[in-house]
Amino acid sequence: MKDLSIKTLGAVTMVAASMALVAPAMADGKFDGVTLRIATWGGSNKAAIESTLVPKFEALGGEIEFVTGSPQANFAKLIAARGRAPFDVMEILDAQLPDFAKTDYLAKIDLSKVPNTKDVPDWSYNEMGMASWITQETICYDTEKFADLGISAPTTYKDLAVPALEGRLSIPDITSGGGLANFAAISYAAGGDLKNVQPGLDLIKELNVLKFWSRGGETVTQFGTGDIYAAIVHAGWCVRAKKAGHPVQTVHPVIGDMAVGVQKYGRLGIMKSSKNYEAALWYVNEFIGFDNQFALATNTGVFPTNIKVAAKLADDPVLKQMLALDPAETGKQLRIDYTDADISAWVDQWTRAIVTN
């Protein structure tokens, strides 16, 4: 075979160089023309995701659109559309898992394409969903007001049932994002359980609540105006109140002899009706990755599912003060299993005991 001429070699070199330039561009265009729709909350949660995941997806040629609303509202959309979702990926509350188990709305997740599972606990994922964040549900209280009134720092929900706090307490409405987890925790703490929530209702009536909040951000405003001295709310809202200059502190409530502190968690589910399965897998994997989990934790005060991020949070003085960070502590927190809970009955009892009285 004849040797290649210098001219031919030059042409080959040019082609090789051009291919080297094209290859990254082709990789960058992995999701060219793909619009991935994510059903999630708005506000700071959405802003944190926009700061990390949106630029990465755009670099791959795609676009992310957010369908904002509560998981309850988005589940109602699914029911109305018989599973034909107007989104590809949905944030799901842990309390909704039994409802989803009765449907065929979710696609199975190919876990081989979600390598970041190496950095999350085994309990937090399976082929039907991926835990995306954890909230630590707390008692958030104004330390200065409590000191002025001579009230000791609370350790239990019952400690809030004192005359000096009458009309100065805010707790979640049962239909809010934090409502079910906190209602279940209060019921356990009062001596009931998931099948007998009456003790929880009785304790709530003792508290003489000023406001049953529907959005946790309401409590930040109420601490600022002085309308409330304490709130039952996830630690992230207390973090935001602290950063706004309010003298607040969290307490992880003692739940009888079974737990100290309460957890709620969200999951990401990929819709079976999605036409963008590969892009949805990319999103799920990136969501539990270090960058996004760190942004969520530091900007919103949620606890990360990513173990590497959890180990870094002690570097933030406010998070170190307001969150339980030691695995020995977080492992003792109550995480509700709603499998046998009759949530419709809870809401009915709540309506009759709280709303109509």
Explained architecture:
42% of the residues lie in helices and 18% in strands. By secondary structure, it is an alpha/beta fold. It folds into two domains: 31-134 and 265-315, 3-Layer(aba) Sandwich (D-Maltodextrin-Binding Protein, domain 2); 136-263 and 335-355, Periplasmic binding protein-like II (D-Maltodextrin-Binding Protein, domain 2). The strands form two sheets. Strands 1, 2, 3, 4, 5, 6, 7, 8, 9, 12 and 13 form an eleven-stranded mixed sheet that branches. A two-stranded antiparallel sheet has the order 10-11. A hairpin with a 3-residue loop joins strand 10 (254-255) and strand 11. Helix 7 (198-206) runs parallel beside helix 15 (343-355).
The rounded Rg comes to 24 Å
Classification by helices and strands: alpha/beta
SS field, number of helical segments = 15
CATH superfamily assignment of the largest domain?
Periplasmic binding protein-like II
- CA-CA gap between termini: 97 Å
What is the CATH architecture assignment of the largest domain?
A: 3-Layer(aba) Sandwich
Molecular shape: globular
CATH topology of the largest domain: D-Maltodextrin-Binding Protein, domain 2
Provide keyphrases for this structure.
alpha/beta; D-Maltodextrin-Binding Protein, domain 2; disordered N terminus; two-stranded antiparallel sheet; 18% strand; 357 residues; eleven-stranded mixed β-sheet
Layout: helices, strands, pairs:
Blueprint: H1 6-28, E1 35-40, H2 43-59, E2 63-68, H3 71-80, E3 89-93, H4 97-101, E4 125-126, E5 129-142, H5 143-149, E6 169-172, H6 179-189, H7 198-206, E7 211-213, H8 217-225, E8 230-234, H9 235-243, E9 248-251, E10 254-255, E11 259-260, E12 262-270, H10 277-287, H11 290-300, H12 307-310, H13 317-322, H14 327-330, E13 334-335, H15 343-355
Parallel strand pairs: 1-2, 1-3, 6-7, 6-8, 12-13
Antiparallel strand pairs: 3-12, 4-5, 5-8, 5-9, 5-12, 10-11
Helix pairs in contact: 2-11, 6-7, 7-15, 8-9
